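Q: What would this chain look like folded?
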Amino acid sequence: MLAVRLHAAGEPLRVEERPLPSPAGTQVRVAVAGCGMCRTDLHIARGEMTRVELPLTLGHEIAGWVDAIGPDAVAPLRRAGLAAGDAVAVFGGWGCGACNDCGGGEEQRCATGRSPGFQEDGGYAEAVLVPHPRHLVPLGGLDPVHAAPLADAGATPFRAVRRAGPWLRPGARCVVVGLGALGQFLVQYLRRAGADHVVGVDPDLRRHARSAGLGIDLAVTDLEPAPIRDALGGDADVVFDVVGTDQTIERAGKLVRADGLLMLLGEGGGHARFGFNAPLESWITTTAWASIADLRAVVSLARDGAVAWAVEPTPLAQAPQALDRLARGDVDGRIVLVPGGTA
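A: My prediction, written as C-alpha cells:
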C-alpha cells in the first residue's frame, strides 16, 4: 500500500510502498477514505512535538471504511453496531483501557496511550490499523472524505466550548484567535452555546470572509486590543487561542476580563506567564484533543447538518507538497489526503 512517512525530524516526507497490515487480536483495519492534514503534523515534521516515535506514517484525522477484522474484534465490532464496509471516523486517543482516565471515557488523556500519527502509524496511507472497535464512530450517511476533519478539527473545539460552559452565560463575549479549520468550527459551536459577541483574529482575509458566513460578528487581522474591546463592548469572558505562540498567548491573556478564561488549543510552542500581572482571578487552561463522546456528538451534529466546514481533497502522493502549503499558510479550510485520487 502507499504511505507517506517521516523518518527524521526536519527531513522531507517520503512517499513509500509499505506492506498492507493484517489485523490481529482486537485490531480493525480501516481502509482510509481521507485523512485531514493538521498543523500538528507540521510541528511533528519539524521536530517540535514531544512523545513522537519515528519513523512514522503521519496523520490522525482519519475516516474510512471497516476493511478487515482481527479474530477477537468480531464480537465487540458487532456490539458497536458495525460491520465490514461501514463508514467510520477513527478516534485517535488509543488509551490503555484500564486506568482511571480510560475508565472515565477520557482515553485521550491516558498516560500510556498511543495515537495514530504520533506513536503509531497513522492515516497518511491507504489503510490504518486501529487497536479496538471502541475507537470507531459510525458515520452513517456522511461522506468519509468530507468527515475526516471531524476527528480533530471538529472535535477539539467542541470539547473546548463544552469545558468553557460556565463562562458562556447569556451575553457572553468571546474572542477566537485563529480562523482556520478549528477556529471556524469554534465560531459555530459558540453560536450554538449562546455567545452574544464573537470576534475572530486572523491575518488571512479569506478566512474572514468564510467566518462571516458562520456567525462571527467581526474579524480583525491582529490582536490589537482597542478594536476588539470596542466590538465586544468590554473585555472578553473567554478567549480561545487556536494558535498558541508566545505572542498570541500573552496578548490574548490581556483581553480576558477579571474571572475570565483563556482557553489554549493551539500547539504553537508558546508558554503563558501567569501571575498577578494577569487579570484578577482569571483562569487559563488547555484543551488537548477530545473524548470519544465529544467525537460522537460532533458526528451527530454533522449528520444533522448543524455545522459546516470546507475540505480540499488532495491526492495522498502529493502530501509533501501539501505540507509545504500548510507551512506557508496557503490553506483556508482543511486539506484532506485521499488515496488514489482527488475523490
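The longest helix spans residues 181-193.
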